[in-house]
């Protein structure tokens, strides 16, 4: 669905002239303040009888403007003096200063979004906005949850909830205070982070969500900003959170964390001594089948095997039948000039090699069998990451999501960790097994 702004931008000049010429003088003056005309789809309230609307997006995606306009929508009536749907609003941010500078006085704040005849008055001493119809919006800091014990509201706007230090306590106090009117509602505008309170809110049946990446609002952002953040963070896990607005789910006790993976990021790999393609085959086909994990990795074999560094180059995972993943694996070998293809054969047995050789009868192939559970098999690979001995290129987001949901107990995400299994096999082939072979003779000499 196109916004009015998008239509104007793409319309022919004569169409724009006809549209604007058909408006009365009052309508033309009101048009800049008619948010429904200019809004992007994720900035408009969803239909339905919801309690909480979470607007989750990347930096600069227009979340603050959406929150400001929603407050206007709730408190304004047909004219400046007429009552609106709501009368008492809570504005909650990380600090008083941030609420005032962003939610109230910011470029997309309530005052900037309000037309002159509807603009509320800021009462600094009482930390609140007051409208001509008597509606008020009072500022609260997420550092002081007890301040919400006592007041009561029929609407609330919580900004950047995912970074509040006392988010659980503040959110709970806000829910007790949101008790006026027939159906009190609240809006949460936030860049996602893996915090319990946000996940709990998203899991509520009464919560609705809209989402947009930073790029959705590019018409209102500096091109130099977009180019810089895309260059620096595009294709990284941090970029998926801060630019794409994706909630990254790091589970408690995970073998890998977002911080660990961001620390392993490199722009390019050096000249590699060996490259392999590792495959975790899908043994079933069809819509309900698992993906076939295909990961390409290489290693620099300078010095003793105990100091080698591996580089994860590509996640070429596909979903399809056996010939589909076999072709994808062989294509990945060709792209990276890999010297060997390794694959787990616990479930497929000889069929795995047979399918691969249907595509390329001469491919260097090694069958691998798992003797331990996924979590135990992944643990020594995670240890190499902790030592800084495995590096990641960009563009491995889906693989990294699985990594941050793997614990020693097993995988705690949805489905099967096919991408992660392929990664584990690749690192075992390149680093762990050569290191074990190097250590064993030394032990015998001792």
UniProtKB/TrEMBL annotation:
<protein>
    <submittedName>
        <fullName>Terminase family protein</fullName>
    </submittedName>
</protein>
<keyword id="KW-1188">Viral release from host cell</keyword>
<dbReference type="Pfam" id="PF03237">
    <property type="entry name" value="Terminase_6N"/>
</dbReference>
<feature type="domain" description="Terminase large subunit gp17-like C-terminal">
    <location>
        <begin position="278"/>
        <end position="429"/>
    </location>
</feature>
<dbReference type="InterPro" id="IPR027417">
    <property type="entry name" value="P-loop_NTPase"/>
</dbReference>
<dbReference type="InterPro" id="IPR035421">
    <property type="entry name" value="Terminase_6C"/>
</dbReference>
<dbReference type="Pfam" id="PF17289">
    <property type="entry name" value="Terminase_6C"/>
</dbReference>
């Amino acid at each position: 669905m196109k916004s009015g702004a998008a239509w104007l931008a793409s319309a022919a000049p004569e169409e724009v002239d006809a549209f604007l010429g058909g408006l009365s003088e009052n309508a033309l003056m009101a048009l800049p303040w008619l948010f429904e005309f200019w809004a992007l789809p994720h900035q408009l309230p969803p239909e339905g009888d919801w309690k909480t609307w979470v607007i989750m997006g990347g930096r600069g995606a227009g979340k603050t403007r959406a929150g400001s306009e929603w407050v206007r929508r709730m408190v304004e009536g047909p004219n400046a003096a007429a009552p609106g749907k709501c009368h008492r609003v809570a504005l909650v941010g990380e600090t008083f200063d941030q609420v005032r500078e962003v939610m109230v006085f910011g470029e997309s704040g309530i005052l900037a979004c309000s037309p002159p005849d509807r603009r509320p008055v800021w009462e600094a001493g009482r930390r609140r906005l007051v409208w001509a119809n008597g509606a008020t919006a009072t500022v609260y800091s997420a550092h002081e949850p007890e301040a919400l014990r006592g007041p009561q509201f029929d609407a609330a706007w919580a900004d950047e909830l995912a970074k509040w230090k006392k988010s659980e306590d503040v959110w709970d106090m806000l829910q007790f205070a949101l008790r006026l009117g027939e159906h009190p509602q609240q809006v949460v505008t936030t860049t996602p982070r893996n915090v319990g309170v946000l996940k709990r809110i998203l899991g509520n049946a009464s919560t609705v969500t809209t989402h947009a990446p930073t790029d959705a609002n590019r018409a209102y952002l500096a091109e130099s900003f977009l180019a810089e953040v895309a260059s620096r963070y595009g294709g990284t896990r941090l970029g998926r959170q801060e630019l794409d607005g994706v909630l990254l789910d790091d589970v408690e006790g995970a073998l890998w964390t977002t911080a660990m993976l961001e620390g392993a990021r490199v722009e390019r790999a050096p000249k590699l001594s060996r490259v392999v393609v590792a495959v975790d085959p899908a043994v079933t086909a069809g819509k309900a089948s698992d993906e076939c994990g295909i990961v390409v990795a290489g290693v620099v074999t300078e010095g003793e095997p105990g100091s080698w560094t591996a580089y994860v180059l590509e996640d070429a995972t596909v979903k399809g039948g056996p010939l589909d993943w076999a072709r994808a694996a062989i294509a990945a070998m060709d792209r990276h000039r890999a010297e060997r293809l390794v694959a787990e054969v616990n479930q497929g047995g000889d069929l795995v090699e047979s399918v691969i050789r249907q595509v390329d009868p001469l491919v260097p192939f090694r069958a691998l069998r798992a003797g331990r559970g996924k979590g135990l098999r992944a643990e020594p690979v995670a240890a190499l990451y902790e030592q800084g001995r495995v590096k990641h290129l960009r563009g491995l987001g889906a693989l990294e999501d699985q990594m941050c949901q793997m614990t020693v107990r097993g995988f705690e995400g949805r489905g099967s960790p096919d991408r992660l299994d392929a990664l584990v096999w690749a690192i075992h082939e390149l680093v762990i097994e050569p290191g074990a072979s190097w250590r064993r003779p030394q032990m015998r000499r001792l």
